[in-house]
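Archive entry: two folds, one per protein. Generate the first.
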Amino acid sequence: MDRFNAMRVFVAVADTGGLSAAGRRLGMPLTTVSRQLKALEEALDARLVTRTTRRLALTEPGRAYLETCRRVLSDLDAAERRLTGEQAEPQGVLALTAPVVFGRRHVLPVVAAYLEAYPRMSVRMFLMDRVVDLVEEGLDLGIRIGQLPDSSLRATQLGTVRYVTCASPSYLSEFGVPATPKELAGHRCISFNTFSSAERWSFAGRKPVSVTVDPRLIVNTADAAIDAAKAGLGVVRVLSYQADSSLKDDSLRLILEDFEPEAIPISLIHREDRLPQAKVQSFVALAVPRLRKRLKGAEAAEKESNGRRQLSNHETS
């Protein structure tokens, strides 16, 4: 048995949750994957995986051995790259995740630049509005919005984003503009519940305040929440970058600006065991300054747009 090859098979099985999926990733027949995994378990005299009703799951010894395999294989790959000169030109597949709107608007252009700079690389990009475990999903990097818990992941802050509250001009004309967060109790509200509570919205101002709203509509994507607000269904609370285009074309208007909570950090996170890899190092080096520049540019454009809107409102009042 080739121990290193068997370890790669085991990692692929753990990442994909199945023998067939691992075979597809590695380009191996199912019988070969099964044989390699069985041989590894016999050599270790330990059961590494167990079958559930839907997929393969790691046993307790399997979870412990998985991290050892990742570390050993990462060190081996790094050593081979140094010997072959690959370190100078990354190649392979980079897997990353980001929130849907942020990923489409900011990360995708950076990925395009990365692929142009490194023609031997390819990227698997997963856009989803939920917190993703990089290790469980077999990912290299991720964009995380919010405070980060203590973990083994490395993090580089890219900038900040904030929650904004807004509604369509037609809604505000019909139902009025709330002057304080407490007045939201008498308004129709639309909740986007991925990053925050659907029923409790937190604000700042002179002192922090949390208000309970009674949403008429709860959705799980920012685009749907914003479209509903633009249609006049109610007040929506989303992250600033999610609403920027609608605020620019005046299909939505900011309200309760004096009560916006503190800014939320946006971070690029990556796994400790993947850092030595050239693909991760090269992406971090290219992406971090570009994403920081994009976020600063978006913030400056938003301030300029808000300034023009306030001036226009003052002149017409």
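Generate the second and append.
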Amino acid sequence: MTNPNERASVLIEALPYMRKFRGATIVIKYGGHAMVDADLKKAFAQDVTLLKYVGLNPVVVHGGGPQINELLGRLNIQSHFVEGQRFTDEATMDVVEMVLSGKIGKEIVSLINSVGGKALGLSGKDAQIIKARRKQLTRQAEENQPPEIIDIGLVGEPTHINVEFLSLLRDSDVIPVIAPVGVGKNGETFNINADAVAGAVAGALKAEKLMLLTDVEGVLDKDKRLIQEIGVDDIGQLKRDGTISGGMIPKLDCCAQAVADGCDGAYIVDGRRPHALLLEIFTDEGCGTAVRRREAR
């Protein structure tokens, strides 16, 4: 874009959104290709920093599955999965915590700080930001028998978010960067799905937006066209008719729960697009698929 008028028009288009969302909390789940590609990582750091500078309050929750797999392999710790979930024993949990709270968290903080932000890396155990319980999976047993409970080790699900502590950070210049590791009532450390943590944080903080960065354009219909908006009440039918399947189901369930808990809207955004966060928040067209209450349409 070389025409000065075109550059100015971009800023003018963003102005009403800056005004509308000033002071709003934006929870961002950072993962996928956006965490791997060097240019996308820098663009993400710039986006988050810009959001803070123009008066929004970004809260970042990050994943790290591929990086965990890499270190487990180097340490010759075998992984196995149960019903699609990584079984997390104590040795695996040590690696998970080391990678998420250490290597990845520090890298994201450094990236944001390098472009002018003030980021702070946190584990969900810090100030008990994320209280959790052991997650239980069940499998249907024989007819007329109770479901079988499946042990997946130290895998957890959020039960409480420390809103008071996060609110202190939100009202400061700090950008929280949270690793999805939680603490149990007896001090246990739990490995938690990053989408689930981001959804729980967005609901607890009554965020304006929950944004899940993914490696897809958004939710696609059966003709592979982008669905720009989905009502929470539509999700069940989309599951039944096969429009959504596989890994998109838990993402939409996470979005629906966040909205039910008080988040204004959730968005599945293509993190492969540079500056996808800014495109979604500050442009008329937006970017990805929005999940909202039906009455918000």
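Annotation attached to the second fold: The longest helix spans residues 90-114. The chain has one domain: 22-296.
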